[in-house]
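Hello Y.,

Per our agreement to keep a running log of every chain we model this quarter, I'm adding this entry. I've kept the format consistent with earlier entries: sequence first, then predicted structure.
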Amino acid sequence: MGFDYLTMTDHVVLPDMKVPGYPYCESGEFYEDAPTERHEQLLGMAYVVAKTTRIRLVAAVLVVPHRPAVLAAKMLATLDVLSGARLVVGVGAGWLKAELDAVVTTPFAERGAVSDEYIDAFRVLWTGHAPRFAGRYTKFDGIVLEPKPIQRPHPPIWIGGESGPSLRRAARVGNAWCSIGSINKHLLDTLPRLEAGIARLRKATAEAGRDPASVGVAYRVKRYGAAVPPVASNGERRLFSGSEADLIGDFRALHDIGVTAIDIDFGRPAAAAVIAEMRRFRAAVIEKI
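Predicted structure for the entry above:
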């Protein structure tokens, strides 16, 4: 069908999701009919790698504190090798306290610091012939991690999250910033709001001593068309609301402001319905851009 990449999310365990609290929806409710039914992300990606030959796989996002740094680095390196260099490592610090309390051994309040340190450890393990690291949350020396990822210096790292710390993380180490327009605390659901978010990213990247143009921008569309209320809380038009002509215009507008990747949530109750919607959307929207 010509799509460039496939994303997979990362939940290990979930609480009762009937209780509102989902941050990517105005009502606080999960979009999916069965939100607690999830395969483990990296095993699921390995299965898809074995079933495909061309499409890239994006962890969107790997919750970094979920797995010890050395183990996660090894699993991701293995995925890059077995996929033939088709891996994109999207990462985030996590948001669901009940899940992180059950899964990880580091404190929930320190998840940002843990993520920063683990990402640095990943890069050392993926690039160093004799990797050494002495951090607060992970330490190693005198070890070998082989084979290295095929992609050099390592698979692309997309940093998820819309908060200030997430933007600074993207500015410091990201190959791209992976944003979602509908998170209630940091809305990027209109063109001016998204432009402002990208401007903050560019400023933070320059302050980190990197070329602002070196960090791409990925944008996730959770819902589109009639499923999206047409007017945002600031009175402006919501991105990806309206007709197919409106969606085509949004794709073009996002390209013009520097968005380098857009992914669409085609979630449906059955696989056949997902494939059918992907085909329809491609013919009605993507091929007309």
